[in-house]
Amino acid sequence: MFRWKATAATIAIAALALTGCAGGSEDTGAGGTSGGTLTLGAITPPTTFDPAGSEWGNRSPFYQSVFDTLLLATPEGTIEPWLATEWSYNDDNTALTLTLRDDVTFSDGSALTGQVVVDNLQRFKDGTSPDASYFAGVTSFTAPDDTTVVITLGAPDPALVSYLTRDPGLIASGESLTNDDLATNPIGSGPYVLDTAATVTGTSYSYTKNPDYWNPDVQHYDKLVINVLQDATASLNAIKAGEANGVKLANNDNLTEVEGAGWTINANELDFQGLLLLDRAGTMNPALADVRVRQALNYAFDREGLLQALQLGNGTVTTQVFPAGSAAYDPELDDYYSYDPEKAKELLAEAGYADGFTLSMPSSTVLGATTYTLIEQQLADIGVTAEYTDPGNNFIADMLAPKFPAAFMALEQNPDWQLIQFMLAPTAIFNPFHSEDPKVDEYIEQIQLGDEATQASVAKELNTYLVEQAWFAPFYRVQGSFATDADTTVEMLPTNAYPAIYDFQPKP
User: Looking at the whole model, is its pTM more than 0.90?
Assistant: First the structure.
């Protein structure tokens, strides 16, 4: 997933050798039949097993194997009970009350209690996770009793329950939180237990079935191995050699070879790629303050051609940043801007830029040299000069500093309120110039304070306004691909790049 932090981790290009074959034992074979071994490939390892420093995206399987989350995101796009069996808000949506299961124990024998959950949530808020800001609006976590937790907010946060299905909702044993080895020896209540003796940090992670797991119906294997495959060649080699049952593919370059090996491609569309027109007030590049210029940039791109050239057609062209599964999504906005260089030139002339202008942007080898060449060519066709600077490992930091008025980027399409807090709000991390628009601010407030029906209708209005005002120039939604062998099935999530551990099953 190119959530900005997750995909940045795929920069590493060294191929890491697998430590074992799929199946893992003589009597199960490579098929991963019930009771055998499931061997998976992931594109990046965890930096720590301490939940307070955890991440999600492509790192989620390492955590989800050993820790449970409070709530569960499903392949159907719903949020279901998990460690918490019920949840409800107060009248003004500023206090979320969770009811916890009373039959859960951690692998060290300690019990799940309200105070344990509170301690975990507070550590995450105060911790080093890139997602700690998800709890920025929380004023307190309290546990009135052993099976109740109350999360109090300074203002409503419509995405809070969604956050609890991800890394902010991971719950470790309360007794383990002060352990010196928490970063390498996690103690959770999840379906598997990390086998530290069989694990090679950064390369291969081995888990055994938790014999006391509260939900044995989702434990489809006796053993789980997750190998780190940090480039496409290593992934393809593992697939062809039968050394895995499921592999996350970093790109779509080798889908034909993968299918030729008898594997199935399971797909979702989580990310979009395109230009982020960050300097909408024109503080660094005055041209971008004019909506006609931003619209001209949208008309400049042959999205179908770019999708074919850069993704081999694996994706869907779009001019909106909200995902297809969100309330804000409008299918008619996928082609709001056609490929029309002449229209782009007319708009530039109307805005006073008949002779064009120069647009400074960062570049990164991770996103591919061809990408930048094609963008440069299509901008040149309307008289705009692309001026690239490669910040190296500071690509994200320099973009968010901000040092550039625009950038080509691949970003996760989050559910509505998460996307607003991620890309649109004045304090959003991917709104580094803190762009504001009175109408956008009004929409955001209505979504934050409104009921579900209001949130859905206003989100759609907000999306339409953003497209009309050309806050971004998206090209397409990218197909995320996960390959499974002939003996393994999986259901993809609409909200994460990596499937849930529970959704892998051996074929009968």
Answer: no
